[in-house]
From TrEMBL:
Transmembrane segments: none annotated. The gene is upp. Its cofactor is Mg(2+). It comes from the Bacteria. It catalyses: UMP + diphosphate = 5-phospho-alpha-D-ribose 1-diphosphate + uracil. The keyword Transit peptide does not apply. This is Uracil phosphoribosyltransferase. InterPro entries: PRTase-like, PRTase_dom, UPRT, UPRTase/APRTase. Belongs to the UPRTase family. Signal peptide: none annotated.
Amino acid sequence: MLHVVEHPLIAEELTKLRDPGCPSPEFRQRVRRISSLMVPSVTANLETEVVECATPLEITSGVRVSRGIILVPILRAGLGFLDGFLDLIPQASVAHIGVARNEVTLEAEPYYLKHPPTIGEHEIIVLDPMLATGGSAIHAVRTLHAAGARHLRFACLVASPQGVAALESAFPEIHIHTACLDRCLNDRGYILPGLGDAGDRLFGTC
Ligand code: URA
């Protein structure tokens, strides 16, 4: 299920982010702002339960989010998407997953995974700024399922129709949240119009 998070401030930030003249420090700040602006939509349907709470005057009822939250940035570009989520969900744990392309088979393969042992009891939000072919996202979700994750959603900055279709076809139940659905992929797997290589632009390696 695809959710495009539409908001004028996100749209303006994204416009500035696409500009090839946007330097890395500014790029990082803008990605952080967009990810924070996405948090209310990405988390809008979290399950909650009623709890008793005390005010200085009396006992009343309040709300608690039922499950703890684990944020899972896909290395490396997902790291740039993490801080904006942590700004609004500081109580979240952070798991890390590394997915790289095997240069022989050309398949994406997970090479690193570190998560809290109680992963099955948590709400998992997988983070990757670019959902391009969907290969990394599919391998990340498959690996997290194999590790016991059950309540999982995916958030990105820019998605391609091909990436959305691939992820939905592999995991029809998954909710995909993106700030923008772009037009297509080019023959090198880059999203068009896109914003180039998000990892390189975030970390100044271009
Ligand atoms: N990864 C990126 O960083 N950019 C794309 O356009 C596609 C994949």
